[in-house]
Design brief:
Elements: H1 2-8, H2 13-16, H3 19-39
Length: 49
């Protein structure tokens, strides 16, 4: 049963089992979020005061 599910899912279970890959994934998401926060930072413009 589990082998048939693994065969039809587009996931590499051998790579998912390696914790180093999860650290790399976490760092990639962290750096992407940091880059987006630097690009789309809120402005401190005062409007109408």
């Amino acid at each position: 049963m589990m082998d048939s599910v693994k065969k039809y899912t587009p996931l590499n279970f051998e790579l998912m089992g390696n914790p180093v890959n999860w650290v790399i994934l976490f760092l990639m998401v962290l750096f992407a979020g940091l880059a987006l926060s630097l690009v789309f930072h809120p402005t401190d413009a005062k409007t109408g005061d």
